[in-house]
């Protein structure tokens, strides 16, 4: 790659880190960019290299958010998320993307409609479910969404935020903080599988990781400054962008 290609990738990785830190979906920015600037890379290697950058960026955003926001959390979410994502990545070749896309589009639109017509959702703390069931339901949600992240991926952060907000009746800001911690573990689980398969370009990935961290730090501070209201608008924006993106892929595939 020439200097222009490197510059485009580094800038794109920083933007992807910001997007991931705010709401998730940075892969929509970085993966197509890697494939276009470095067409010699196999698609699986582009995915694995993106995961390498995303692990560092999401982890740095998680640290910044956890320092300011005290989430309801348990280490089991982290372990289960990594295992579920690794399992999803290992079985990714068994499912056709064209089958998953319509389901994800419908789910995202349902999320958007719910958030639009329930303005109070995610803007204030409420009474959570009983502690006994709360943890069980949250673990189930982490397992399902973690598996989805490994097998397909787009919108993982958004689905985690919605799940934690529903289960714990808490603000979007607190849920966003929890989602970054879990998303770090799901990225790591998928990365391990890609690395075992030899689908990671380590030199490129580590350079992009530095840029991703910079973007993620700016994104984390954007979330803290904007609060739950900002996360709500970012979530709705992601629903629109991803629905259009996936619908277009469904049409042309």
TrEMBL record:
Xref: Pfam families: TauE
Membrane topology, record value: Multi-pass membrane protein
Subcellular localization: Cell membrane
Superkingdom classification of source: Bacteria
Keyword annotations: Cell membrane, Membrane, Transmembrane, Transmembrane helix, Transport
Regions crossing the membrane: 7-35, 41-66, 73-92, 98-117, 129-151, 188-210, 230-248
InterPro entries to which the protein is assigned, alphabetical: TM_pro_TauE-like, TSUP
Similarity section: Belongs to the 4-toluene sulfonate uptake permease (TSUP) (TC 2.A.102) family.
PANTHER family according to UniProt: MEMBRANE TRANSPORTER PROTEIN YFCA-RELATED (PTHR30269:SF0), TRANSMEMBRANE PROTEIN YFCA (PTHR30269)
Designated name of the protein: Probable membrane transporter protein
